Q: What sequence folds into this?
């Protein structure tokens, strides 16, 4: 099978994604050789970038049909546009695409491996990066849902609290959106009861955790928008699920608490969908 043609990337594209300051610093990082071990797996570019910390940052960028579809960096930058480390990664690809070592997709890398070998691999990954255990927990819970079992809401509550501890608005938003997608997947499958259980657990924890500190980093309201999406999802589950009276009451109470929290904080539009749902069921 012929390799998919990748989009052409230029310095102009990278400049459009970054502030002038980030671009200039990222360009200096590129020329200093700070981008280490660049690899490409299908449309994803990954590397380490030596920065101000002792440990290099992990950077990645996903190529879309007409440019960059997504980017990620483990640095705390959250001031608009991509950070200097991502700029350095992208400039490396613009000027030295051949330096990116191609890696086959996971389906090829792991083809033919036994269950025991895969479990050993996952165990080693968790030993090196303990935070990956949370992803394994969620993966296991989605498997339970696929077998018609109710979700382990305690897992979703833990993941929500973990997401809210980040010091970056974008990272909080990204992790909450990942949880939202799991709930939305159940809703798309018509499993409104389990979708509601996830929406409820995350909304409840997110509203409890939206304190003054989180409000301060949520300058663009990204986190508040995602929280509203959970409120909207839960309100849809109230309308479409066959939840019993006790469950419906708990869901409604979570929506009301979201509205009350918004009022207490001065009206941030934390979860306007909660207000609409509560009004519709009153």
A:
């Amino acid at each position: 099978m012929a390799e998919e043609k990748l989009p052409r990337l230029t310095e102009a594209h990278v400049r459009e994604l970054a502030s002038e300051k980030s671009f200039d610093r990222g360009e200096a990082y590129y020329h200093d050789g700070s981008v280490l071990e660049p690899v490409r797996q299908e449309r994803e570019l990954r590397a380490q970038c030596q920065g101000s910390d002792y440990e290099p940052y992990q950077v990645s960028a996903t190529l879309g049909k007409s440019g960059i579809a997504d980017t990620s960096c483990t640095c705390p930058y959250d001031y608009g546009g991509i950070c200097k480390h991502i700029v350095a990664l992208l400039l490396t690809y613009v000027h030295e695409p051949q330096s990116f070592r191609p890696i086959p997709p996971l389906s090829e890398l792991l083809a033919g491996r036994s269950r025991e070998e895969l479990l050993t691999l996952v165990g080693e990954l968790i030993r090196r990066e303990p935070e990956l255990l949370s992803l394994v927990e969620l993966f296991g819970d989605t498997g339970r849902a696929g077998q018609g079992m109710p979700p382990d809401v305690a897992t979703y509550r833990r993941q929500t609290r973990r997401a809210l501890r980040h010091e970056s608005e974008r990272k909080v938003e990204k992790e909450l959106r990942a949880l939202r997608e799991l709930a939305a997947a159940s809703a798309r499958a018509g499993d409104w009861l389990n979708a509601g259980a996830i929406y409820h657990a995350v909304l409840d924890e997110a509203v409890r955790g939206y304190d003054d500190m989180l409000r301060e980093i949520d300058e663009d309201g990204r986190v508040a928008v995602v929280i509203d999406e959970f409120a909207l999802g839960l309100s849809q589950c109230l309308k479409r699920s066959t939840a019993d009276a006790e469950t419906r009451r708990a869901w409604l109470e979570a929506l009301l608490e979201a509205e009350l929290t918004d009022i207490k904080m001065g009206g941030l539009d934390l979860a306007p969908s909660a207000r609409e749902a509560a009004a519709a069921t009153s």
